[in-house]
Amino acid sequence: MKKTVTAKDVAKLAGVSQSSVSRVYFTGAAVSEKTKKKVLAAAAELGYHPNEFARSLITNRTKIIGLVMKGVQNPFYPQVLSQFTAEFKKWGYSVLFVHTNNEEIQNEDVETLLNYNVAGVIITDATMSLKVAKSFKNNEIPLVFFNRKIHTNDFYSVSCNNLNASRRIAEFLLAKGGTSMVYLAGNEQTSTSREREEGFTEILSDHNISYKKYSSDFTYEGGYHTALEIVKHQLPSAFFVANDIMALGVLDALRKKGIRVPEDTKVVGFDNIEMSGWPAYQLTTWEQPINQMVEKTVNYLLKEMANYTGMARTVEVEGSLIERKTT
Amino acid sequence: MKKTVTAKDVAKLAGVSQSSVSRVYFTGAAVSEKTKKKVLAAAAELGYHPNEFARSLITNRTKIIGLVMKGVQNPFYPQVLSQFTAEFKKWGYSVLFVHTNNEEIQNEDVETLLNYNVAGVIITDATMSLKVAKSFKNNEIPLVFFNRKIHTNDFYSVSCNNLNASRRIAEFLLAKGGTSMVYLAGNEQTSTSREREEGFTEILSDHNISYKKYSSDFTYEGGYHTALEIVKHQLPSAFFVANDIMALGVLDALRKKGIRVPEDTKVVGFDNIEMSGWPAYQLTTWEQPINQMVEKTVNYLLKEMANYTGMARTVEVEGSLIERKTT
DNA sequence: CTGAAAGCGCTTACAG
DNA sequence: CTGAAAGCGCTTACAG
After folding, report:
1. B4 CB contacts (<8 Å, ≥6 apart)?
2. What is the pLDDT of residues B93-147, one digit of tens each?
3. Topology (CATH level 3) of domain B64-160+290-320
4. How do residues B142-183 score in pLDDT, each as one tens digit?
5. Domain boundaries, chain B
6. Where is the HTH lacI-type domain (chains A, B) (predicted)?
7. Which of A192, A264, A295, B195 is the S-S candidate for B162 at Cβ 3.0 to 4.6 Å?
8. A 37-56 residues with CB < 8 A to B
9. Rounded to an integer, what distance in angstroms lies between the CA atom of residue A60 and that of residue A62?
């Protein structure tokens, strides 16, 4: 039998009421210094910790944020995870990590989030059906789509201004004198991949530059093998690759084929993950300002958790081009 | 006001008692098919989810595993995280992600774990003072040090057999005909780095091969800059680098200096992270069998959570050498 | 198999 | 500022 030390035990030892013990641990409650001292001494002696579950049960709110993530292989996401965790820690919130293997978040994961009555939810690179998203709305649990946009205007989303970023990438590549280009898509179901394509091809069309689209899956392997396929047929003057990890695969494929970058062709990625700056790659890319994106997400969630309104908005941050050696 | 749907609401609609509703959601309880049907229909209509907090309060056990992690930059750890999450999900456990920036787990994080009354704790690349570790013992919360050993025999730890692995790496390098070697340490406070050094240098000493030790910090940057420093003075016939991510830095530093691998010198890493197999690196390394390590950890935790004994053991798994192009 | 009731460890009006 | 008491949403003996 596990003997848990409760507020009652502490109260007994300290010679005060259980309510007073509770007040010591509840920020904002009124307790005298004297009582506080007695209670803390007794608590230290017994090794008391307020039970977060009992607390949550009575306040009907938790200090848990559900963070849903899929692509742990892409260094972008672990970084997002650690930044969220660090930021929420400042506010006393903990992160429940939900990992989906599937593209779409599974029912059992949704159950978990609902059962734990999480204070808020962040969806990163997974998708969520509108029906499921609505069930969070019904429970007044604020939800943010991070780095993904959603079709309807019913939810809050934070992402990079992909449209503008990819337009500027197209202009940048155009200025370098390209004549034929390739857009290498990630998972085409994602808004991320689609928007980056849209902005890029829009500018190219304006300038009558031919381009071809290939599809892959946002992974290194995908980038590598697709690039190998592509160069069998043609060598475009530049590749715009939907994210960095794929772009690294493209670079390695080109290197294997003896194709020099940036002399023979050019490559631009998206994300600015740490590895893109490594000497072996030196990838030109678009930096997503994770800090800002995290901050906007946390601020929204904090506000909604304090006072739920269900407010929806599509927030976009700009970011900037990081020019390195592949262009 | 948030209106939570409770078992009572469901009971009313279904025309049964609240206890019956409870029984439907508690696996193992006896309920008739008829009652179950009525309850599930009512629950679906109302959108009911059993409150995990109330449940935990009464059973005095949670389904939350605290996972403490520091080095999210090293791809080894995100992989560990996702494997643990996937494995525990099978058993109905969720993962509370605790990220420390500091080497040692901070007090507030310990508080969090204790407050949430987690069912078990996994410490990966962070350290934990014995005093703190004991407080988990006092609360009968099973604890595993993952990929780290602890000085005393009071705790369960799961790691690779670093001693044997590094001995075999030394022998392997010796067979390649090296005459002077370098061991590039990670954080020297870690058992991981120290053991890898010990096994490696033991064999070298036996064969009267000179070696030199340099210290770094288990990061890519650390490996890169330290290697640059090293080759200013000498070019050893081989580097044994305490983990892969540092070894990748070493390879990039050598490449920058025009030093050919494996012709001019050789490099061996440790972990076998995904990137080590990428064409740009093709690093020879020691594969840590994450699957086995995770499995042993989960099995132990599951057993202890069912029936706490406080059993301590140091478990080691073997792994194997992956020979690629850097040797 | 089912219901009424006690109780998990807290917070929070309510009096004083 | 403090204590006695109600109650959060469940599980679980206890009867029937």
Report:
1. A60, A117, A139, B51
2. 999 999 998 888 988 899 999 999 999 999 998 888 888 888 899 889 999 999 9
3. Rossmann fold (3.40.50)
4. 999 999 988 778 899 999 999 999 999 999 999 998 889 999
5. 7-50, 64-160+290-320, 162-287
6. 5-59
7. B195
8. 47, 49-54, 56
9. 7
